[in-house]
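A note from the maintainers: we've had questions about how concatenated examples are separated. There is no special marker in the raw files; a new sequence line simply starts the next protein. For clarity in this README we add a label.
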Amino acid sequence: MIDWDDVRYFLAVARGGSVRSAAERLGVNHATVLRRVAQLENRLGARLFDRLPSGYRITGAGQEVLGLAEQIEASSNQLEARIIGRDQGVRGLLRVTMAPTIATHLLMPDFAAFAQLHPEVEISVLSLDEPVNLTNREADVAIRVVYDRNTLPPNLHGLQGPELYSGVYVSRDLLAAWRTGECERVRWIVKDNVGLHNWAHGGEIPAAEVPFRTTSADAQIVAVRKAMGMTTLPCFVGDADPLLARVPGTRLRPHGTLWILTQGETRKTKRVRLFTDFVSRRLTAYVPLLAGRIDPVD
């Protein structure tokens, strides 16, 4: 008999293309993912993935299993969502997903406040750059930066929040060094998966030809704090940091709109409604910070 949990691990690898991605999504270690996939392959008597240096490539047999597994998953999720939607108790697990920067630099104090108000709710924060699938019940609530509302999945319930703005920031020490002539040009700190926004050019500080690259938002923030160069950041990060200043001659630009997203019957549960209402009020209070309308920290 096939274990549904083994199928869940198979689906995570198929969707992520690697054991690492599946382990991160499921919150387990690599060995667990490998063991679960091997168990399913043994039960089915077929190899479901080709193990390549670049990742896991699904086989023909795996493609057949994938289609059936997704049908089973959809039915399971529909049944679970209907039962959960009738749950009007506050106690239980609440899984919330968002980008790491929003979690660590904006909303974590609010999660702590919500946890104090509702200690019976078990909060699990999925701090990930890639979107989590609410339809597949990978999370209960998603807080996302949306650039075009037409891209929102039609099956999700969306609560629109404030608009975000970004600016160009540099460390105060590096800005002082440039003003006194100690350095003529300053590197750009670039996130490889985002690149440099066109609007970021044109400030008073000339850019060096050789950039500093990173794939991590946390590393990007540390690099600008350590005077590695200048970079684009959301205003709620840059303006709140006493070590940073806006680059002279640059302007703020829209960075997207925050949306609170829920799915189907899940949004009807009491703990989800309490949480989304709470976060919506907190985001409204943050409008000046998110729009760059507060004075940067001195």
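[label: protein 2]
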Amino acid sequence: MKAFLEFFTLTDPNIRYVVLGTMLLTSSAAIVGTFTLLKKKALLGDATAHAAFPGICIAFMLTGTKHPIYLAIGAFTTGWIALLLIDILIKHSKIKEDIATALLLSVTFGIGTLLLSIIQNTSNAAQLGLNNYLFGKAAALLGEDLLVLGILSIAILLTVVGLFKEFTLIAFDKAFAESIHMRVNLLEFVFTSLIVLAIVIGIRAVGIVLMAAMLITPAAAARFWTDRLTKMIGLAALFGAISGLLGSFVSYLFPGMPTGPWIVLIVTAIAYISFLFAPHKGLLAKKLRQYKHQNKILQENILKLFYEIGEEKGDFFGNCSTEELMQHRAIPHNKLIRGLVSLEKASLLYYKGNKWRLTGAGKNEGERIAQRHRLWELYLTKYLKTKPAYIHENAELIEHVLTPELVKELNKLLN
């Protein structure tokens, strides 16, 4: 409890720098990552992060210091050049985007590793800690780092807010944006710069290798919760901030645990929770909707079966055993019992003496389903000239999705 209070009150300046710094970088990256995800350019984040590494090494070699501003300028420059080279490769060769991105990713990271080896063989003592940019070291964030992170994060936020409509349009319909003479190339340039900027501010804490996850994962998690872009951006920023906060807390409780990997693990856990439990797009919600739909089809098929048997016998309220029902339609016994019990609970069937019969409401519902089936069969025969062998099977599928409005139109059309 003492450690918990000490951490969340942010009384220690070192804790304050780490927590605020990681929350700033994760939320800023998540905002930019939302548009990156929608533009289907997720791999660009990984390429940019790796391309920033040579810039960090070059900046250190030129200045002899690890000042965050100098290193940020170097990382931004090489990261942006890499994205420019990817664009040139795509436009002026037969190389596709994924291949060009993978190519630049490997080459730039190799160059960065080579430059780091050269630096490590020099006598400059300031080189210590430079390799932390590979995997990140949030615990090393200082006040000057926090100032740079704050300025760059505010710049990203203001740019996104100021160009929100334009970014939205080119993310969803770039061709339309070009047709109304929007300056798409300039907007793409600005957006590319934001990607690089988000990467630059994050690699100090999360590292080059893991930074792509911070760019894309919060946005991917937010996508499961909403279809509105503004809410998606807000949720992505929130998920990023939460992962930064909790990752820092775990690292504080266990000093041997690196902050960057824990941030990535937490945001990945949020993504998996979203994937499983999001109310509309989550896997469990989809499975539940699928189960309800299958149960609805089963119940409608059983009611139609009772109605058709009633037509044959001339008695819609006659009793039927499960064996008789299965003789008329091949429904597995366990599924049939499940459907019959559900219909009894809905007061559409009545059960007595191991036999079942329709109630008044059940008869009306069975008649409605049979009518939809026969209307569609007639429509297929009369207007679409479908072969008889396919008519019944097609109607078996369509009868469950015909709306009252379509049924009304079919009645009018077929007289």
